């Protein structure tokens, strides 16, 4: 999945230049073509400005993030972030993802050689076509490495990993399969179920909102998404987003800084309509 953010030519307030993201099991590579982005070290409060980390390098790798995060730009910015299935990126780079949980580092700290040079060159000649340049770079490397099945939701991806981990080496025991799963993703199957459940909740909440034109019934969302009750839903959503479901929904509808959640909600709603099961 790729997301491009371009605020050049837009007049945004300081508050609108925040970018809020959920926790995610997917590693990511980001290119910052123009402007600066700073990770928020401490969340902003009513009485004090946020603490910011130094500006991110132009090309940065983010491992799977187990907590929600936010970034901020002091002015206009143009950036591209591409998330990969962790098992695919693990194979491509020849690394285990577990040591990179919650890490954000310059890409050159993780890889080198010709592939690094090609990644660093993305967008240098024409940032308008950066994603297509990345596709052209990766396509030859991906030939034969993927099974060719579209897995547009985390649920489908996690289910496919469970099967692969169990049958990659016939006769291997449960512990070996669990270890293989964790090497590929950096987390256990149980850890990833958190994201699968919250993804399903977002799909059902979006469907309700689009059908009724009002805020979703959270008790009904909890039941449809397989949570024990509404309180269970609230705890899980807080773990992934840092916010209770009602407040998150309101901010998605009204606040520019939650633009990523709006895009993700639309994507999941569309993807779920085409996913099996």
Question: Could you describe the 3D structure shown?
Answer:
- With 277 residues, this protein is an alpha+beta fold.
- It has two domains: 2-142; 149-277, Orthogonal Bundle (Arc Repressor Mutant, subunit A).
- 45% of the residues lie in helices and 16% in strands.
- The protein has helices at 86-93, 113-121, 130-142, 154-167, 174-185, 189-212, 218-225, 230-241, 245-254, 259-272, and strands spanning 2-6, 18-21, 28-34, 38-42, 51-55, 59-62, 69-72, 78-83, 104-106.
- The strands form two sheets. Strands 1-8-3-6-9 form a five-stranded antiparallel beta sheet, with no helix packed on it. The protein has a four-stranded antiparallel beta sheet with strand order 2-7-4-5.
- A hairpin with an 8-residue loop joins strand 4 and strand 5 (51-55).
- Helix 4 (154-167) crosses helix 5 (174-185), helix 4 runs antiparallel to helix 6 (189-212) and helix 6 (189-212) packs across helix 7.
- The chain is globular.
- The mean pLDDT is 87.
